Amino acid sequence: MPSFSDYDSAVTYAFGLTIDGITTKSIMEVDGLVLEADAIEMRENTPDGKYVIRKVPGRKKAGELVFTRLFQQDDSWAKWIDKIFKGDVTSSRKNGTVDVYDYQGKKVASFKFLNGWPSRIEYTGLRAGDANPMTERMTITHEGLESQAS
Fold first, then answer.
1. CA end-to-end distance (rounded Å), the chain
2. Residue 66 reports pLDDT greater than 90
3. Residue 42: what are its φ and ψ, rounded to 5°?
4. Is the Cβ–Cβ distance between 101 and 15 less than 8 Å?
5. Are 89 and 80 spatial neighbours (Cβ–Cβ below 8 Å)?
6. Which of 53, 57, 116, 133 is deepest in the core (most CB within 10 A)?
7. What per-residue confidence (pLDDT) applies to 6?
């Protein structure tokens, strides 16, 4: 990971999404980069009879990532979720990586998700007479997120 001075922080300039070696272009926004573990509560009595509650870390949690991109002729997201609709869950599970770059194009962070599959695709920006672009938002449900060393 790059180092920052006391007064600097990582300003996100760009990011990339790669799923099974294929890079998706025109990603505008990424949400859900959350690294989280279960907290297990242990209740016990000490030898002198005091009741104690301790919390210990458990397994990492699964989660969801949400990607927004400009609507385009690339229909790979729609084809991917269509496999889910047809019951082809096994081949629909894919691993992927989200890379975050600074303004100089240097990678500042990387996250790998495991066994992800599209659980929702939403089309937004549909307003008659509006000059704003239409966007496509995909939610990927995954079985775990890992921070990768850059």
1. 5
2. yes
3. -105, 120
4. yes
5. no
6. 116
7. 55
Residue appearing with tokens 């979720």: 81
* 40-140-124-28 Cα dihedral, nearest 10 degrees: 100
Q: Which of 129, 95, 127 has its CA nearest to residue 111?
A: 95
**3-state SS of the chain?**
CCCCCCCCCCCCCEEEEEECCEEECCEEEEECCCCCEEEEEEEEECCCCCEEEEEEEEEECCEEEEEEEECCCCCHHHHHHHHHHCCCHHHHCEEEEEEEECCCCCEEEEEEEEEEEEEEEEEECCCCCCCCCCEEEEEEEECCEEEECC
Closest to 81 measured CA to CA, from 120, 27, 24: 120
pTM for this model (two decimals): 0.81
Over residues 68-93, mean pLDDT: 90
Contact at 8 Å (CB) between 27 and 16? yes
